[in-house]
């Protein structure tokens, strides 16, 4: 399988990717744990059907120490006992933030309040940014049919 467009080598899309990636890198300095960031990115990527990003975030999460059991259960986190209440709140926020078009009114006050019980303002800001950035990357990869399976941990720095 070959991507419709190599947006990393096209000068127009490469510039856009550079700026989106810079936004994503800023999150590494946040107090939101790397594990939570990877779980959120993985869940949004699953929802959006982005195989390339699922490949990236399962490998990066594993490299960060995440267990295979938890990674396998992200898609069914509501029925899994392996996630903390805080992680559940982050995953629920990721789902509603990713499925904005499915909910008349976007993210519910209830979901936001639940996340706010577990995360401070800076961590909430990081969660919002992770959700926005991964959704942007998901859309670019899905639109161009970027194939999955070849990603190497740390490949994009």
UniProtKB/TrEMBL annotation:
Q: Which intervals hold domain Carboxymuconolactone decarboxylase-like?
A: 21-96
Any Pfam family the entry gives: CMD
Q: Where is the signal peptide?
A: none
Q: Which InterPro entries match?
A: AhpD-like, AhpD_core, CMD-like
| Protein's recorded name | Carboxymuconolactone decarboxylase family protein
The organism encoding this protein is: Streptomyces rectiviolaceus
């Amino acid at each position: 399988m070959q991507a419709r467009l190599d947006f990393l080598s096209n000068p127009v899309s490469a510039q856009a990717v550079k700026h989106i990636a810079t936004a994503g890198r800023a999150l590494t300095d946040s107090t939101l744990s790397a594990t939570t960031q990877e779980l959120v990115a993985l869940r949004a990527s699953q929802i959006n059907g982005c195989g390339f990003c699922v490949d990236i975030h399962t490998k990066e999460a594993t490299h960060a120490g995440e267990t295979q059991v938890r990674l396998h259960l992200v898609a069914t986190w509501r029925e899994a006992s392996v996630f903390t209440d805080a992680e559940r709140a982050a995953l629920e926020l990721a789902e509603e933030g990713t499925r904005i078009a499915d909910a008349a009114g976007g993210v519910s006050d209830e979901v936001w309040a639940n996340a706010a019980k577990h995360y401070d303002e800076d961590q909430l800001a990081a969660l919002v940014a992770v959700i926005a950035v991964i959704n942007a990357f998901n859309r670019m990869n899905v639109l161009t049919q970027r194939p999955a399976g070849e990603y190497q941990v740390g490949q994009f720095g």
